Fold these 2 entries.
Entry 1:
Amino acid sequence: MKRLVVILLTVSLLAFGASAMAASKMVIKSSDVHGDGYPTVEAIKYMGELLDSWTNGRLTIQVYGSMQLGGEKEALEQVQVGALEMTRVSVGVVGPIVDEFNAFNLPFVFRSSQHMYNVTDGEIGTDLLNQLEKGGLIGLGYMDAGSRSFYNKERPIQQPADLKGLKIRVMQNPIFVEMVNSMGGNGTPVAFNELYTALQTGVVDGAENNPPTIIEHKHYEVTGYYSLTQHLMVPEIFVFSKKVWDKMSPMDQQLIRKASALCVLKERELWAAKEEKAFAELKKVGMKVNGDLNKEPFIKATEPVREKFGGKYSELIKKIQAVK
Ligand code: BDP
């Protein structure tokens, strides 16, 4: 009898412990270089609202936007060690951590946004997200960032030769340095949180990005020409710390996965509206936009970059290209 009581007590204590653990409150900190109103930030906030309502406030997300926590490379490092639970970054800075992601960072690898969605939503996208675990990250989903084109203070870029002598800022990944060099410019890696000043002080003459980023971060104030080369279509990604994830209950992990899937769809919707608006705004704020250019010479000039960095993953790249 005494033994039975002890066993029952132990079992109920364990059950109590487990439910107390499952019920513990958690504020998930997530960083972003963009601020309020930007699609990636608003989508993560929406994900937080979903979690909040599903768990009666037990799981919530606090977004630290506008580069409060620094650049994307540092954010990823913080997530890897578990000092930060989540971050939303460009796949551009993920390549140096999980090499296969560089297949998405090659110039002119995606034909259109739809092609990119079909790749990231399908087997290839899921497989790559799973590979993030070896870098201490749990891949939760992709987001749209449109396409990236050159902008600079000096002149319109109509052909690769127009990049000659221009220092063009790129994200911190050797692929992008060579990409700009292959077209005739000087690729210069600079962290995003240092870019405005780098443009202002002439450390670089230009950069490359999508219209919403140029508008939101007021880069038009320190440049003047936007040329629609659309040489990169780098998706965004949001990741969770594997260190933290492994300590969470399977139920909470599932809730996060479910909210992530809805967050992806939300961002796409917000992105489409934001991109259209930002394109119109570029002209309003005085940027000279040249949209009518022949992409062929840019595609040709970057061929060696696809060969060099894509060589190792030629099978993966063939698979990407075969996706409709
Ligand atoms: C923006 C991305 C952001 C990158 C930034 C960059 O949304 O994640 O940090 O480009 O160029 O389009 O660094």
Entry 2:
Amino acid sequence: MTTTQSWVESANDAQCDFSIQNLPFGIFSDASNREARVGVAIGNQILDLSVLQAAKLLKVPGANHATFASPTLNSFIALGKAAWAATRTQITTLLQADHTTLRDDAALRSRALHKQADATLHLPVHIPGYTDFYSSEEHATNVGALFRDPNNALMPNWKEIPIGYNGRASSVVVSGTEVRRPNGQIKLPNQERPVFSACRKLDIELETGFIIGQPSKLGTPIRCENAEDHIFGMVLLNDWSARDIQAWEYVPLGPFNAKTFATTISPWIVTMAALEPFRVQQPAQAPEPLQYLRHSGSHAFDIQLEAYLKPADAAQAMRLSHTNFKYMYWTMAQQLAHHSISGCNTNIGDLMGSGTISGPTRDSLGSLLEMSLNGKSPVSLGSGYTRSFLEDGDEVTLKGWCNGDGYRVGFGSCTGKILPAIKMA
Ligand code: CA
């Protein structure tokens, strides 16, 4: 099979996340224009859609200049699925190796293409609401075995309900934003009352997230069969977690401050259209879910995922984990069907986290909590470094990609560096 090639040479590298088959959407600014605007990643470049629109090279139903000169993708996403498809088709054509309109117009090309290395990437959407699920059977089993009964690790509701909680949208940040170690209440096992302290068990959660593209009305559930129509695309997501704060506060209403200090997402939203070739069958579900959680066909996606950690004084990042999104027990469609079954509405830009993604092996775990058995068995990173939990100065990077035939559909990276806690008087 001949893979479609682009005249943007860097996009044709089989290891490049941003092939012409991908075309993820994001928000960027650079020295040529300090205003944040809509771009599409191609190779090591960004295609400026506001320039294409002004040059009348994009004909997207309902779009005007403001759609692409906007500091968020929400207006574009609101145009709907037909507009997303039209934009993707037209950009694909403009970037194909044999298409001359943009390729051979040096003046236009210099205004429309910008080096990623020179650009600042911003949070791609305004996020009205953030929900985080708990849908990896391996992760839920590992955590249940650590804190409850290894022989009865899953709670009785786990295989009936895509478990989730309402998170905090205000602290979702884009990759590259530094993350401050939180302070809070910690209950030490040998003391009667909690202490006030900087978090001592700061952790990562390797997740993906999906972005709502088609809203739903209050009181109207989304059907599982067509729930994917409501999804614009996916990102990588690190749900930073303060395990010691969480252990004390989570009874009876679930995590609160342990999860609200930061959630990092990758800057490029990979569309469901780009992910379509990587659709695979989800794991078998037993017992069969209740009717409103049933869907026919394949609803998982084969997305390779990695987590890396770079200690402040280390020469390079070291791999913590290699797993895959396809292991998830509950699908995104089931998560959305369950989220809305009560009548809860969703808005454009809402972010839904998958839950920590752990695979079946020791090198495929999505959190340090699981890797270090809650600190009992520190992880060897190589080069003499070990970790039970994150230390100040540690930089964590998530990566994700789908392997096509001679190309990748990748997510880029999702990075955050830990700053010391604020000293409270
Ligand atoms: Ca989580």
